[in-house]
Amino acid sequence: MLELIDIHKSYEDDPLLTGISFTVAAGETICLLGASGSGKSTLLRIIAGLETPEQGRVRWDGQDLASVPAHRRGFGLVFQDYALFPHLTVVGNVAFGLKMQNLPRREIDRRVAESLNQVNLASLASRRVTDLSGGEQQRVALARALAPHPRLLMFDEPLGALDRALKDSLLDELRRILHQTGIPAIYVTHDQEEASAIADRILLLHAGRIIRDGSPAEVWRAPGSVWAARFLGLGNILEGKSLGGGRVETQVGVLKTACLHAHASGETVSLLIRPAAASAGGGENVLRGRVADILFQSEFFRVTLENGLFFRLPAAPRVGEEIRLRVPISAVECLA
Residue 326 is inside which H or E element, if any? Predict the structure, then answer.
């Protein structure tokens, strides 16, 4: 098991990571999700042994890794830019690290074949990597990381350069391989959909700290903060004043919430309004507005009102039309 304890790191005297602590269990895939510059890649480099924390410890099965160099840690790292050797074939790239370990030729051949089969590249073994597509090159990079039988795999924005369809295909394959091999993994991305597709657990990283830790479903259902809800694109964020009894006065009227927090009367409250829950009609929590924009997105229409609120509706109104939408109490959430 990997364990990080109170990791601190600064960049040009500004704190980058502040008190980072988490564990990765056997067979678990966690995703470090955050905006660019949040310290995700630096954290991977610290775990890999390529950078040193100013404070804190990295341990594997209880052993402190501070004195263990990167090449002795037994961790595999896959980058966005593949980092392949352009003058070598697919086999040559996958075998390179094994040769550095001075393994017997028969063992190298066995492991290379095993890794290429895992990523479905056996038929391209003799090709030069420069003749491969971006998706195929990323598979070679994954095979190279798998060949030494790492005890931990780390991925630094590995699919960032690929188009959506290819990314989805490789995510499915990567999830299959991780489940099949049982290798624990840390996956870094700024893409929320990618994180949800690959992770058993998501760690939201913001301002140098982990501000949310949970399964994809838990994080999406309860983001826990205004920043998290905005970053995840979960819906409309409104500020208002508590009137007591779960009622909040906002710029669009008084809304009733299912809030479980104890807010004093007059206290400022941040609300998340889930856009998919709205429907035409009257009753409680009715919002009115003039339609400013309509965008078709797969199975629904994203309808934006002139007041800036947006909703996902099954049918499109007309631009300029005044509409009334009812939002159920369960879709109006208080944020800490």
Answer: strand 322-326
Annotate 22-60 with three-state secondary structure.
EEECCCCEEEEECCCCCCHHHHHHHHHCCCCCCEEEEEE
In angstroms, rounded to a whole number, what is the distance separating the alpha carbons of residues 120 and 127?
14
Q: How many domains does the chain have?
A: 2
Structure token digits, residue 227: 């920043």
- At residue 336, does pLDDT exceed 70? no
Range of the domain at 327: 235-335
Which helix (H) or strand (E) is 145 found in, with range? helix 134-146
Same domain flag for 281 and 219: no
CA distance 274 to 285: 13
Q: State the SS3 of 192-258.
A: HHHHHHHCCEEEEEECCEEEEEECHHHHHHCCCCHHHHHHCCCCEEEEEEEEECCEEEECCEEEECC
Copy the structure tokens of residue 99: 């040769």
**What is the average per-residue pLDDT within 86-92?**
93
CA atoms within 13 A on the CB side of 116: 20
User: Computed from CA positions of residues 148, 146, 143, 108, in that sequence, does the dihedral angle turn out positive or negative?
Assistant: positive
Residues 125, 104 share a domain: yes
Q: CB–CB of 76/148 below 8 Å?
A: yes
Helix (H) or strand (E) segment spanning residue 334: strand 332-335
- Is the distance from CB of 241 to CB of 269 less than 8 angstroms? yes
Q: Are 301 and 319 in contact (CB under 8 A)?
A: no
Average pLDDT on 291-300 reads 93
- Is 317 in the same domain as 174? no
Other CB atoms within 10 A of residue 259 CB? 19
pLDDT at 219 over 80: yes
- Residue ending a domain, among 203, 227, 251, is 227
Res 5 pLDDT > 70? yes
Residue 83, pLDDT > 90, answer no
Q: Report strand pairing: 322-326 vs 310-313.
A: unpaired
- The torsion defined by the Cα of 210, 214, 219 and 225, in degrees rounded to 10, comes to -40
Give the CATH number, domain containing residue 276: 2.40.50.140
**Rounded Cα gap, residues 304 and 311, in angstroms:** 7
